[in-house]
Amino acid sequence: xxxxxxxxxxxxxxxxxxxxxxxxxxxxxxxxxxxxxxxxxxxxxxxxxxxxxxxxxxxxxxxxxxxxxxxxxxxxxxxxxxxxxxxxxxxxxxxxxxxxxxxxxxxxxxxxxxxxxxxxxxxxxxxxxxxxxxxxxxxxxxxxxxxxxxxxxxxxxxxxxxxxxxxxx
Length: 169
Ligand SMILES: NC(=O)c1ccc[n+]([C@@H]2O[C@H](COP(=O)([O-])OP(=O)(O)OC[C@H]3O[C@@H](n4cnc5c(N)ncnc54)[C@H](OP(=O)(O)O)[C@@H]3O)[C@@H](O)[C@H]2O)c1
Known about the structure:
The protein contains 4 helices and 10 strands. By secondary structure, the protein is α/β, with parallel strands linked by helices. The chain has one domain (about 5-165): Dihydrofolate Reductase, subunit A, CATH 3.40.430.10. The model has no long low-confidence stretch (mean pLDDT about 95). It has helices at about 30-40, 50-55, 85-90, 105-110, and strands at about 5-10, 15-20, 45, 60-65, 80, 100, 120-125, 130-135, 140-150, 160-165. The strands form 2 sheets. The protein has an 8-stranded mixed β-sheet with strand order 5-4-3-6-1-7-10-9, with helices on both faces. The structure holds NADP nicotinamide-adenine-dinucleotide phosphate. One of its GO terms (cellular component) is cytosol. It comes from Nitrosomonas cryotolerans ATCC 49181.
């Protein structure tokens, strides 16, 4: 199965936290804009818990939700019962110029990391409390190709970096 152009998109704290109580532990509008700019017009693949955390399909994107539940309803999204089915939908897409993004959560990242060529990571330079973590990356497998430093607006600016990691051949 050709899963080229499949990327992970994640925002992670310094201590690898990505979620708390099925939501994001931070509010970072610049990261939400970054997320939107990357994903618009493309396929986004997510676990059922991440979908419920967002609460609705994201407009302008093909939303694919993975769940074991056979009767799961999410109008406006495509439901699949396996990672294989999600990949088939993506590889059979009509417009091969569109890209696929795995947008979480931890269960999906863990299972799909090995299929991805690229990771778009927003790395917050602070620790956050949480209950969901991004898997450890093997440095032998990934090259950091881009790192941009940013600060959030407001009284106590948060430092965060937009990073791109590409799989080594
Ligand atoms: N910081 C970020 O960038 C980011 C991004 C996304 C999410 N998050 C956070 O991450 C947390 C959610 O992550 P999570 O790991 O708990 O859940 P998740 O990965 O979003 O969803 C897990 C669910 O996906 C389904 N699933 C997973 N693997 C499957 C498979 N192989 N076949 C069929 N179904 C499968 C199951 O649904 P069923 O139980 O229905 O079978 C499972 O319970 C939240 O806190 C969210 O806010 C953070």
